[in-house]
Amino acid sequence: xxxxxxxxxxxxxxxxxxxxxxxxxxxxxxxxxxxxxxxxxxxxxxxxxxxxxxxxxxxxxxxxxxxxxxxxxxxxxxxxxxxxxxxxxxxxxxxxxxxxxxxxxxxxxxxxxxxxxxxxxxxxxxxxxxxxxxxxxxxxxxxxxxxxxxxxxxxxxxxxxxxxxxxxxxxxxxxxxxxxxxxxxxxxxxxxxxxxxxxxxxxxxxxxxxxxxxxxxxxxxxxxxxxxxxxxxxxxxxxxxxxxxxxxxxxxxxxxxxxxxxxxxxxxxxxxxxxxxxxxxxxxxxxxxxxxxxxxxxxxxxxxxxxxxxxxxxxxxxxxxxxxxxxxxxxxxxxxxxxxxxxxxxxxxxxxxxxxx
Amino acid sequence: xxxxxxxxxxxxxxxxxxxxxxxxxxxxxxxxxxxxxxxxxxxxxxxxxxxxxxxxxxxxxxxxxxxxxxxxxxxxxxxxxxxxxxxxxxxxxxxxxxxxxxxxxxxxxxxxxxxxxxxxxxxxxxxxxxxxxxxxxxxxxxxxxxxxxxxxxxxxxxxxxxxxxxxxxxxxxxxxxxxxxxxxxxxxxxxxxxxxxxxxxxxxxxxxxxxxxxxxxxxxxxxxxxxxxxxxxxxxxxxxxxxxxxxxxxxxxxxxxxxxxxxxxxxxxxxxxxxxxxxxxxxxxxxxxxxxxxxxxxxxxxxxxxxxxxxxxxxxxxxxxxxxxxxxxxxxxxxxxxxxxxxxxxxxxxxxxxxxx
Amino acid sequence: xxxxxxxxxxxxxxxxxxxxxxxxxxxxxxxxxxxxxxxxxxxxxxxxxxxxxxxxxxxxxxxxxxxxxxxxxxxxxxxxxxxxxxxxxxxxxxxxxxxxxxxxxxxxxxxxxxxxxxxxxxxxxxxxxxxxxxxxxxxxxxxxxxxxxxxxxxxxxxxxxxxxxxxxxxxxxxxxxxxxxxxxxxxxxxxxxxxxxxxxxxxxxxxxxxxxxxxxxxxxxxxxxxxxxxxxxxxxxxxxxxxxxxxxxxxxxxxxxxxxxxxxxxxxxxxxxxxxxxxxxxxxxxxxxxxxxxxxxxxxxxxxxxxxxxxxxxxxxxxxxxxxxxxxxxxxxxxxxxxxxxxxxxxxxxxxxxxxx
Lengths: 357, 357, 357
Known about the structure:
The structure is a homotrimer.
Chain A: E1 3-9, H1 10-17, E2 20-22, E3 28-32, E4 42-45, H2 52-55, E5 62-66, E6 79-83, H3 86-97, E7 106-107, E8 112-113, E9 118-119, E10 124-125, E11 130-131, E12 136-137, E13 142-143, E14 148-149, E15 154-155, E16 160-161, E17 166-167, E18 172-173, E19 178-179, E20 184-187, E21 192-193, E22 200-201, E23 207-210, E24 215-216, E25 221-223, E26 229-232, E27 237-238, E28 243-244, E29 249-250, E30 255-256, E31 261-262, E32 267-268, E33 273-274, E34 279-280, E35 285-286, E36 291-292, E37 297-298, E38 307-309, E39 314-315, H4 316-327, H5 329-356
């Protein structure tokens, strides 16, 4: 698959990455592939120490490795680019080798744009888009086909909205945001007064605000606040099918993995990681740097830097110990039964002693 | 954010809510805000006893409070509206203060409408909608942009369908239903005959029927029945990313929170609450009034009124006790080991006793 | 609901199913209904031994039953069709009785089709579709309304794409695939380099490849690979709201039930079943024939044929035993406390013995 759209030599690439080039600097890289399938024309990469062994048998013509990988002196046939952080360097390689194609700019004749909109330079509005009134699109904003942008939305420069996205009214996003197909931003929060009888809807009059460099995955949903703002901080990345409830505040640089969910009015600090299918209950705080394991449920305020797991979530070490213990629980029950039997025997003995005493 | 679109005086609002007005009835309310951010021109609210303390320090010019909140006599500077149920009253405040804007009615010229459709008075069909044959839209039904309505669908009066929704053929909904963007109603149930070889699709020929006042959240999916009807009862509210399988029957006034899922042929009574990410297995009954805690999995028929938690779900008190015990399980294992050691010592002692006896 | 679009006699149907007809072969079947609601003109069915009792009281005029059901000799009034596999036979009945209506073919005038596309015979492209460049649609492919097909996609013959689906660039699917509304295939994988500072996006340059007879449910999302291919094997059926991460490889004939999720780079064998809301962690293998219970989380490589449950997933028998034990855990703690008390008494006794000794 990953044949470079633009070939590069080992030396050029090494320079671009600020790395050390070992081997033939003129070697031409034609593709970027995983260790197992890379061939003589390909660059592969070792972004994780656990792949060092596989690197020794790869057919790749060139390898991107970390300084401390120990592979420099492993006598490999491949040309090498040695860098501090090969994961970050790989991101750069793919940017260089697979440049984004130029898209047409302008408003497609089938797009419907409301009154009072402001369009930056080189914006593009795809076919069958429906853009409301008083919308602001920053420079180079791209709306794919069939995007719906509600009244009063503001999209920062270089943001890209994929086909089929719906932004309800008054969504604000910063620069370089990416919203994938099927995502819905600004939908009604799930708020009802239900003390008596059937639930009565509480009108949701707030909005959603995304910072810069936020990415929202396919078919995710972010509800607008009841009164104020649902906020996603700059640099936060949201995977597919993630639910963010109304009034939620997510800090900067967080990673919300697939099918994670955050209930209404929860507040997340910066660099929080929710692994896949994790959940955060409403009206609580998750401190900066907290990592929540897959499938876990945060049901109470969690101190910064904690790594938690389980339902309800607890420190991961505790959860692991408890899980080990749970696996031994049927055996433990047998052992307790045995102790009880021994106890009964003794009681009988001591009764007999007493009798015979 | 929440500046009123239509200002109201304290007295007007109190009258509209059937409340008791304490303070300057002529005070003009300009916004509705949470306690922490409300200012001198704003109304705030105390819908929950746990916010009573915060109410004592708010800068809000006016407060909506409950009769039994004890705040009447707290010497607050704010004007007061005293009501029985401030949550319900807040719902009314937002209706009054943020009236829905009048939308254009009529069929947008880009909408495609099939044969034999019946349109009620003041319906609106947005741009790029595709409406099939023999569809009935009740009075004042609103279809946002890019809505797909399959053949033979019937939508009751005052229902609102947001952009991008897809209704498959023969979906029926009552009055005042709301369906949010990205929701899909009437898709094929997940039914396969798979005794041998690859799964063989079983054609799904039923339909979906929603009662009155049903709300379906963004990107939720409700499958049609294999033969008969998947039913969502009147007044039931469904949050975002919820899955409802084929043949499911949900009663009235239920709340299905974000990412909850109901497997095929399950039957829920009235006023059932599924908290976030909860699941209900197929072919079982969940009695009226049952509440299922977040992340829990109902794997068997559950009696009316139960509050359950866990995987599999059990009475929540049991689950809590078991969770407390699980946290102490590693310690329990040490204690049992200690008892066993004591036992071994005794056995040795009594062996020795026997030897020396 | 399920009145046959095409009536059939008992004899005709029995012949078509290769079954044995018992009773009046000329009996005209007008509907197909579940046991509880079927009437004198309807065929009902017993696909599961647990419905044998209900079959004895049904009002159905005809019944589809299994050879080994014991119902042949039960003296029922209904006409009978006796087959080896009534579930599979039911699939055939519904195909015969509810034939798909003929849809119009051709490209709707509002559809936008790019350059260099190849259209097979009798393809249909619905209103407001946007098809990119160099797309190949096989014979009889149907695109519903508002479908987005990215550049370079290839759709095999007889595949059907429902309204609102988005295929990103270069998605390849085999023959007879079905993709339901709201599904997104080929979206960016969730890949970031985040060793230091904010997450840096890693461009995702791979693609998604579906085999033949794959079905993808409403609002599901399948990410494209970082470099190579995300693969869904032939005959695999994916329910609604399922997440498939980048680089995942799913084998043939798998069933991924509602809201299941598979994290990046996981590899599933053939005929794997993920029950509802189950999850599979990244970079691991799930062997052929593995069944994962609802809500469970596979966190490590799992051997073929295992049936697993729990978080983390373990053999289901172990999980069941541990669950039973967990329910008795509070009682166990009391019993251990009692043993300790008895122990303390003994220690006191033996101290006293020692004192008095």
